[in-house]
Write a structure and sequence with these properties.
Blueprint lengths: L5 E7 L3 E8 L5 E7 L2 H11 L5 E6 L6 H8 L3 E5 L15 H14 L10 H33 L13 H8 L6 H34 L3 H7 L7 H11 L8 H8 L3 E3 L8 E4 L5 H11 L10 H6 L5 H23 L4 H23 L11
Helix pairs in contact: 4-6, 4-8, 6-7, 7-8, 7-13, 9-13, 10-13, 12-13
């Protein structure tokens, strides 16, 4: 019976965990502050009742999913909740760890918390790998920009027709003679930082390619590459970020998860829609937007796309071709109405996620999901 269930809220930090609980119709009670050690947490929970009668929760954060996995292994029901979706009282101006734990326990009992999907260990590893690659790409861009701005300040420009950071550009950089020894030393150090960043990026991309081709998610990664604008790195990033595609019951749910839907404040028969919500997973949103730019071109199966589609199923190819026609028509129609390019691309990216959802569901063996985006 529900009155026999003990709902436990935990406000988890690096060193400590604030624990509160609630039983039946009573108010939340604070147990106290305990060290963030699994053995101590299990000992505390054992005092609150049998493990099969405990329902625990804590907010997703920098401490990750270690506590969730340990509690689940011990037979305790546990969920990790989305901090941005926790109900807040407008007049509540007092915030402490103990109050937060009590609030979590009460909201867990009332069913007002939104759990997040917790990846498996292997899946989390792929996600960490793709995010590390993204960070390395950003670091490389910063180092390159630093070199460019340094040379700009000194009034030095590459020869006409030399492409930035190509072989010719590197030869020009290495042959540069700067006014002082100090400036030459600065340039050499900056170029060394660029080389290290390029090497790190190459190693990470090679490891992503290996994991995407050999891991348990290889089938989904392969099928997503049937889409125009979605190569191996992009497909692996989408798979790593989306996780279990079955948790999205429709393509619209995935669109909402990406934050590519319009905000809305409608009331009393008046409909008012605003800019994109930009909530949810920013990486999924970024990959979809980057891929959407490719659909400004007329439908075509290029040699590169044909090569990527060699290992894909016929159903995935059919969905991908359907996406090319539909998204290109939408791109041209919206652009013809005079909409700014960013808005056109965002609209196409939102619809592209529907095709991504269909192919991922198909790869997961959940039927011909492409009908859902027809």
């Amino acid at each position: 019976m529900e009155k026999d269930i003990t709902y436990v809220g935990m406000d988890v930090h690096k060193e400590t965990i604030a624990v509160a609980y609630v039983r039946g119709g009573s108010k939340p009670e604070v147990w106290g502050l305990i060290p963030n050690k699994v053995a101590v947490v299990l000992k505390t929970l054992r005092k609150l009742g049998p493990f099969d009668r405990l329902h625990c929760c804590y907010e997703a954060g920098p401490c990750g999913y270690v506590l969730y996995r340990k509690l689940t292994e011990a037979g305790i029901s546990c969920v990790v909740v989305a901090p941005s979706l926790i109900p807040q009282k407008p007049g509540d101006r007092v915030k402490t760890d103990r109050r937060d734990a009590g609030k979590l326990a009460g909201l867990l009992r009332s069913g007002e918390l939104s759990p997040v999907w917790v990846p498996g260990v292997e899946h989390e590893g792929l996600r960490d790998l793709t995010r590390a690659r993204q960070a390395a790409r950003q670091d490389l861009q910063r180092h390159r920009n630093r070199v460019g701005k340094f040379l700009l300040r000194l009034g030095m420009y590459p020869p006409e027709g030399v492409k930035s950071w190509g072989r010719g550009y590197w030869k020009w950089l290495e042959a540069l003679q700067l006014p002082t020894v100090a400036q030459t030393l600065v340039l050499r150090e900056q170029l060394q930082a660029v080389r290290r960043a390029e090497e790190l990026l190459g190693r990470l991309e090679a490891e992503i390619e290996r994991a995407a081709r050999e891991g348990p998610l290889a089938g989904t990664v392969r099928e997503l590459q049937a889409l125009r604008g979605v190569k191996l790195i992009s497909a692996a990033t989408l798979v790593a970020e989306l996780g279990d595609i079955g948790r999205f019951r429709s393509a619209r749910e995935l669109m909402g998860y990406s934050g590519l839907v319009c905000s809305e404040a409608s009331s009393a028969g008046r409909v008012r829609r605003g800019p994109l919500t930009k909530t949810g997973n920013a990486t999924v949103r970024w990959v979809a937007v980057e891929a959407a730019h490719h659909y400004r071109h007329l439908p075509k199966v290029s040699l590169d796309l044909k090569r990527r589609q060699e290992g894909c199923s016929e159903a995935a190819k059919e969905i991908a071709w359907k996406a090319q026609g539909r998204l290109n028509r939408r791109y041209r129609r919206l652009a013809g109405r005079g909409l700014p390019t960013p808005k056109v691309v965002a609209a196409v990216a939102r619809e592209l996620l529907g095709f991504i959802w269909a192919i991922a569901r198909l790869a997961a063996g959940e039927g011909r999901a492409e009908a859902a985006v027809g």
